[in-house]
Design a protein that fits this description.
heterodimer, A: 233 residues, Rossmann fold, 4-stranded antiparallel sheet, globular, B: two-stranded antiparallel sheet, 2% strand
Chain lengths: 233, 288
């Protein structure tokens, strides 16, 4: 059976600097995969490359068997892969609701619309006319997730959605993920918070300096294995 | 009364500057592209109007039906085929390329139409006026220019703040890469912005060509007025741009009343005064 998403020997560069060295990663339909690793390990780069923001050889990234490495971000999102970018990246000139509506630019049909997002995050409905910059960090993160959901993704990539948030807020944000999964969306979660990642994921990858150093089911992992994969010592 | 008449006419003519400026502002706002060829594209549109009027025998205002869509398509092609390749990171390539384009347009027009100045004729309408009192009259033509400017700016505001394309414009302006993640095809969006910009300035171009003489070298001065109106009004605000145009028009009218030779000078002085007193313009919107 073909994986939903598979990268094989994926490399990525920022100019002359190589950030990924042959990453093999697979996500099955319905699966939740966590990617952990230290700062600069290449986690965000991996997600940005999958989404088409960084160039990749076409056949190194396959989605439902089709080579998508050389497609534009707009084409990739219209196939059903959406990214919640690191740092949320809401559009400051747009209201909360307009930010959510940006997800519709992809033109994908599906269950997600404004009402559905507002049911998931009721606070956004209260704040929908406000400038996105007026939201608290947690609310901004919810809006960023909502905006990605508005593209009706089959695969949702979340880049450090707990970054800079208070623990209680992180719980709220993460609390939304099981519901999203139940709707049939597969997940890839990049996370610094290892416990958070292990609790959520069916499988976990660890990246270190642009290479996969570990791939396993969370239940079978020991702290020692993670430490070794994380730091290489 | 001469003074009031003059100032009123100046304010109405400000609508013309606002139209020049709205096009410039749109391109800068969406893709941070400063189009040095803006004034020459206005003059190009005026010549296009001249050709349409002469070959089809239409009135200048009816020629808009052909000139506006033609400039829209040309704008799309110009952006997709040339200007898109200058964008990204550095602000210098778009400046240099549009500067080159400015020279090319001026010389092509010179080659095709000679340096003789031209004018479009709109008959009695040019001088017809609405009498308010014995001594006070508003020219119909400046009045129509002003109303058109208000209507065009209102439509642009609607487009920018009420439609999906407008959201894409604003989102791309905020963060082009992130906008792409949600399905915005930025090359297409940029091309639409330029197409719209040229459609707007072609309306202004026909008004300009009916109002005053133009020749292939008239462009840079129009660019300057457009810049001044944008800066006076404050970046990022189209209604501010209209106000900027009016300030410029009134200043020129006042200058002309004092001494006919001071018309342009007075406009530039008003611009400098605003720059000194309110460097961010009268109605700044952009925060950064």
């Amino acid at each position: 059976m073909t994986a939903l998403l598979a990268t094989s020997g994926l490399t990525a560069f920022y100019g002359d600097f190589q950030a990924l060295f042959g990453v093999d990663l697979a996500v099955e339909e319905g699966e939740a995969v966590a990617i952990i690793g230290a700062n600069g390990a290449g986690k965000s780069t991996l997600l940005r490359t999958i989404c088409g923001l960084l160039p990749a050889p076409s056949d190194r990234i396959r989605y439902r068997g089709a080579a998508i490495g050389s497609l534009s971000p707009a084409d990739i999102v219209s196939r059903g892969i959406a990214l919640v970018p690191e740092g949320r990246k809401l559009f400051p000139s747009l209201s909360v609701e307009e930010n959510l509506l940006m997800g519709q630019q992809s033109g994908r049909k599906g269950p997600w619309n404004l009402d559905h997002v507002y049911t998931l995050f009721p606070i956004l409905k209260e704040r929908r006319r406000q400038a996105s910059t007026s939201l608290s960090g947690g609310q901004q993160q919810m809006a960023a997730i909502g905006r990605a959901l508005m593209t009706n993704p089959e695969l949702l990539l979340c880049d450090e959605i707990s970054l800079g948030l208070a623990p209680i807020v992180i719980r709220d944000v993460y609390g939304a993920l099981p519901g999203i999964r139940a709707g049939g969306t597969s997940l890839v979660v990049v996370e610094q918070d290892i416990n958070r990642a292990l609790a959520l994921a069916d499988r976990v990858y660890c990246l270190q300096e642009g290479r996969v150093t570990l791939e396993a089911k969370p239940a079978s992992l020991t702290r020692e294995q993670i430490k070794l994969a994380y730091f290489g010592v | 009364m001469d003074w009031i008449n003059g100032i009123l006419q100046g304010a109405l003519i400000g609508g013309l500057y606002a139209l020049f400026a709205a096009g410039l502002s749109l391109m800068f706002g969406v893709m941070r592209l400063v189009n040095i060829a803006h004034g020459d594209l206005i003059v190009f549109a005026a010549y296009l109007g001249l050709v349409v009027v002469q070959t089809l025998g239409l009135s200048p205002f009816v020629s808009l039906v052909i000139v506006v869509p033609t400039m829209f398509v040309l704008g799309y092609i110009l952006q997709r085929g040339l200007l898109n390749f200058t964008l990204g990171g550095d602000i210098l390539p778009p400046l240099l390329v549009t500067f080159g384009l400015s020279i090319i347009i001026q010389n092509a027009l010179l080659e095709g139409f000679s340096a003789d100045s031209q004018k479009l004729q709109a008959g009695n309408f040019e001088t017809a006026s609405l009498h308010i009192s014995d001594q006070l009259a508003i020219g119909w033509f400046p009045f129509v220019i002003f109303l058109t400017a208000v209507a065009v700016i209102a439509l642009l505001e609607l487009l920018i703040y009420r439609t999906a394309l407008g959201r894409a414009f604003r989102a791309t302006s905020d963060d082009a890469d992130t906008a792409r993640l949600y399905g915005v095809r930025n090359r297409h969006v940029y091309a639409l912005a330029t197409a719209l910009s040229l459609a707007v300035i072609s309306i202004a171009a026909i008004f300009l060509a009916v109002r005053v003489n133009f020749d292939p070298a008239s462009g840079p001065a129009r660019l300057l007025y457009a810049f001044e109106a944008v800066i006076i009004g404050g970046l990022g605000s189209l209604w501010g741009t209209l106000a900027g145009g009016v300030v410029l028009g009134v200043a020129q009218a006042v200058g002309a009343q004092l001494n006919p030779g001071w018309e342009s000078l007075a406009g530039h002085l008003a611009f400098l005064a605003v720059l000194i007193l309110r460097p961010r313009g009268l109605f700044p919107k952009l925060v950064d």
